[in-house]
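Escalation from tier 1.

The customer reports that the assembly of two entities below gives different structure tokens on two consecutive runs. Tier 1 could not reproduce it. I'm attaching the input and our single run for tier 2 to review.
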Amino acid sequence: MAQRLQTERQATAAPAIELRGISKAFGPVQANRDISIRVEKGTIHGIIGENGAGKSTLMSILYGFYKADRGEILIDGRATQIPDSQAAIRAGIGMVFQHFKLVQNFTVLENVILGAEDGALLTPSLAKARKVLGELAEEYELDVDPDAMIEELSVGHQQRVEILKALYRHADILILDEPTGVLTPAEADHLFRILKNLKEQGKTIILITHKLREIMEITDTVSVMRRGEMTATVMTADTNPEQLAELMVGRKVLLNVPKGPAHPGQTVLEIDNLRVTDEDGVERLKGISLKIHAGEILGIAGVAGNGQSELLAVLGGIARGTGSVRLNGKELDLTGNHSDGQSRRANSIAHVPEDRQHLGMIMDFTAWENVAFGYHHDPAYQKNGLLMDNDAILADTAGKMERFDVRPPIPTLAAKSFSGGNQQKIILAREIERNPDLLLVGQPTRGVDIGAIEFIHKRIVELRDAGKAVLLVSVELDEIMSLSDRIAVMFDGRIMGERLPEKTDERELGLLMAGVSGAAA
Amino acid sequence: MKRLPDWADVVLVPLISVVLAFVISALVILAIGENPVEALQIMLTGALGSAYGWGYTLYYATNFMFTGLAVAVAFHASQFNIGGEGQATLGGLGVAVVCLAFDWPHWTLALAAATVGAAVFGAAWAAVPAWLQAKRGSHIVITTIMFNFIGASLLNYLLVNVMRPVGSMDPATARFPAGAKLPTLFDMTSALGMPLFKSTPVNVTLFIALAACVAVWLLIWRTRLGYMIRAFGRSEPAAVYAGISPVKITMYALLISGALAGMMAINATMGEQKRLILNAVEGAGFIGIAVALMGRSHPFGVFLAALLFGFLFQGGAELALWTTIPRELITVIQALVILFTGALDNMVRMPLERLFLALRRPDGEARR
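Tier 1 run:
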């Protein structure tokens, strides 16, 4: 069992933050229940937990977005009221959100002073900010061109601007919410260096994440949340990923699905010089060539937005393209009447889209209506030629829910009432049970709980072992490394190279993802 | 989790909205120096207090069921068809062309043919805006409202210059032949030996309207086309993912919508006026929007809302007849009902949701 870090640890100074008995309910949902936590000064404190465990609610209370129903907040040992974010800033708390809050067509400098101007005239504020930014850049490796427009900056640099904004407002405590979700591995490494620097200068950092690797790498202490409760707080040095996963989920979890060697068969999908141009006339795929064999998982690694979505869209019949795509030797229509989702399904291509809430499901539809989604022409779902056989779909859904362990197993429940993991299981059940020759699967575990990730990975590997071809797109390198039999890295609409997972590492893939070709093999 | 139980969503919210609309109407009636209680009594007795009143109420409700269903079907595809007025106008033309074409041997044959005529003409009038929306992205609200004006002008031209009988000064067609006369409910009840609804226009079309309610329910919730319409209406990107063609679904939904609006003319033109006149639609196309909004695009809701608006129409006529309250006030009441059920829906819904949430919380805690 976890070695609990209790308050008997003799702190020399008052903790930077202490929460005592925080509770918060939204209607009947208890988002936080009696949470107490101490974050010592000058440490990096990780908070992990599954989606809906209450991490974001807790941080929103700390940042003044919500008011706790009960409990108190102590900053530097003093009880503090935080009714709004202004009060949080005054108390020395800075927050870096997962989705940046920056004005795209302002410069870095203008963004930094926005809301913190010293007077009606901007010039003195800008001059002061320029000086402060220079000092901060020096001190913490936080160098950003102060005159660059936000829209011209990479995601990693935009995040630095967010950190600078907080430091400019004299934040001593920094909260980062899932900071690495949008970063390349190299950018993430740089961020961690910045965070370690900040820590050495005496800042306190709270890192919210679901990535166990990051927790292990950078935090001093870690708190685990489950279902609105703080289940444990442990010293990072005293724990390991398996134990943390177990604390998060409440049972033992396999972090890496065991899979045997692949036995690739004949070529299922052959892509040659595939190009896709979007509505604005921008070429998103710039001549892709790939092959996938039966019984093989090809993983596409890359930072989001480098053409992976377009690749899935054109193969799934959502977007149009040029070039050649052959499935089992048969040419697929890329621009004509047969380049739609129905034709692709008829060709035995199943597609688990990246954006399950906007593409993969109709959130207002019930689970059973979503099980028929895309397969609504299936003769098994019709009766007497005129009406849909709702009873047949309901029965089919009940079976799928049982086989894919969807909870709660209620076919008549609206899709939006299921958790992300269970929504994904419904989609996977729908697509995998069609027994497709080719499965396209994008971000299979985005926003999915650890427990469900294990299940989803198992099912994908099972499909491969049944001799089917799988095209896996994911921005999670861990996922790509552990599931793929072969890895292709995409950057700016091109394939930068192919690697075998056992013969590469995150560093090499990260360089390819950043567009550095010819990385040492 | 559901914020409101179904019954509250379907019954309570519209009911409170209607009550609020009536309360404000009562204040308006007070302001012009009349007695609101008396006014309500006159409306109730006038519209629902006698078989005669019911006859008119049901006649109007029949019109509103068709136009309400028309708007509702389009709503399910997330299309706002406000061209019911024009589509019903053209439906009238279809009815007239069919009825005047032959000396019909029996009303059943004439009715069947006129139904097809009304539906085809109504759908045809929706087809151009539908195509412009589906293929070109021209906004359906703009195009359908323009087609309302074009339809009215077209009918005006045809009645004055083409279809007017020689020697008549009236911009209307000749009377339909006797074989095209639809039996009124009075005719039908008399044949059964218990005459009801004497000298009122409610006729056999009411049953077609009721059948249309059932048919639309089947279409939307039991057929594959309805499934695709709903899927497309909820999320176009998802529909494309599933291989549902946005162009086809937009066309189908709006053609069905236009056909339903056109069928309103069976009741008004064939059942009541028995010839095609100018402005036979009398705003029923627009009332259909309110009916669909209030009925939450569900055929049963449309049926109930159509009855309410039928009551408002007939009650309003009585009010104008017996008091100094102008008929326009009824338009005010209708407008208030539309305002409260459509635009201000959240004003009633949100407090109600909070109330239900507050009622639920204690037992939510207790379960733990």
